[in-house]
Specification:
The protein is an alpha+beta fold. The protein folds into two domains: 94 residues, Rieske Iron-sulfur Protein; 181 residues, Naphthalene 1,2-dioxygenase Alpha Subunit, Chain A, domain 1. The chain contains four helices and 17 strands. The longest helix has 29 residues.
Length: 323
């Protein structure tokens, strides 16, 4: 592959942690677009994402940094930085005129998301939350993948590989519909069984892609009175490297607030989410064998039934610098 065929980092929202990982007073380091980024949460619960190095003498704030009240404190000389990034205190004198660079951050459905755009451009869109309030993942699994975020999320619209690799039948109920940085579609999936087995379990999945970093799948199960949610989150961690998270949740179908479920129902929800995660991860592991060995084809020779891939590639262009 030539240099011009390599994909640059895309703009958009990308997950860096689950909300439950970032308790008040916690400091985390994450790889993001080839660099470190430090996450912390103030004692009153405000999450922040900052560049990793103290502007005083360059200590890494994620390597021993602490949160005192609302301030992030450097481990090297105990310079303290306020939630807006301003240096507000030192142990032995007035603070210098110094500031940490902040990254725009959001929390959605139990995920900490950070915005990326070339030249630091501000956000131009938001990741939609679920219509049902209080939905957060209760089961999760993550891995590093040697490919681009685009390659992973594109997989959802590669219908031809589903029966071949995953032994799953697919029927498109609603075609992929772009709405700016969002893309919606609805599929009916079921096991690819021999014709002799008449009974076939099929389920209607609603897919929402929010940029190249977030895929959300909703699966209503009316016969059980449940709805399951699956998130596949893809964060570029370095050149042709992606940190992937698969997370699941379950809720009562007809409740507007998932947090209002009784304790026995919550236990059922957690068990169902774990089962859904196990099934999803088994499919992802099959994909990993392909992703970790394939190359990106910038000009794929598409077959007649690959229209969805062509549509996806056209939609994905908006997240990269021109040309």
């Amino acid at each position: 592959m030539t240099i011009r065929d390599e994909l640059p980092y895309p703009s958009g929202w990308f997950w860096l942690a689950r909300s439950r990982e970032l308790a008040p007073g916690t400091v985390l380091t994450r790889r993001f677009m080839g660099d470190d980024i430090v996450l912390y949460r103030t004692r009153d619960g405000r999450p922040r994402a900052v560049d990793p190095y103290c502007p005083h003498l360059g200590a890494h704030l994620g390597a021993g940094g602490t949160v005192h009240g609302q301030n992030l404190v450097c481990p090297f000389h105990h310079f303290a930085f306020a939630p807006d990034g301003t240096c507000v205190a030192t142990p032995d004198g007035p603070p210098p005129r110094a500031r940490l660079r902040h990254h725009t951050l959001r929390e959605r459905n139990g995920f900490v998301l950070v915005w990326y755009a070339p030249e630091g451009a501000p956000p131009t869109w938001e990741v939609p939350a679920t219509a049902q309030a209080g939905v957060v993942p209760t089961a999760a699994w993550s891995t590093q993948v040697r490919t681009y975020a685009q390659e992973i999320i594109e997989n959802s619209l590669d219908y031809r590989h589903l029966p071949v690799l995953h032994h799953v039948t697919v029927r498109e109920l609603d075609p992929p519909t772009p709405e700016g940085p969002l893309l919606h579609t609805r599929l009916r999936l079921g096991p690819d069984r021999p014709a002799a087995l008449k009974q076939r379990i099929q389920a209607d999945h609603s897919l929402l892609m929010a940029g190249l970093g977030c895929l959300r799948v909703e699966l209503p199960l009316p016969s059980l009175g449940l709805i399951s949610y699956l998130w596949a989150m893809h964060t570029p961690s370095g050149p042709r490297r992606t940190h992937m998270l698969v997370a699941t949740a379950c809720a009562d179908l007809r409740k507007r607030d998932a947090a209002s479920a009784s304790l026995p129902r919550r236990a059922l929800h957690r068990a169902f989410a774990r089962a859904m995660l196990t099934t999803a991860v088994s499919k992802v592991r099959q994909d990993l064998t392909i992703w970790n060995a394939k190359r990106y084809e910038p000009r794929p020779r598409l077959a007649a039934s690959d229209e969805t891939i062509g549509l996806f590639r056209h939609w994905a262009r908006q997240f990269y610098p021109s040309p």
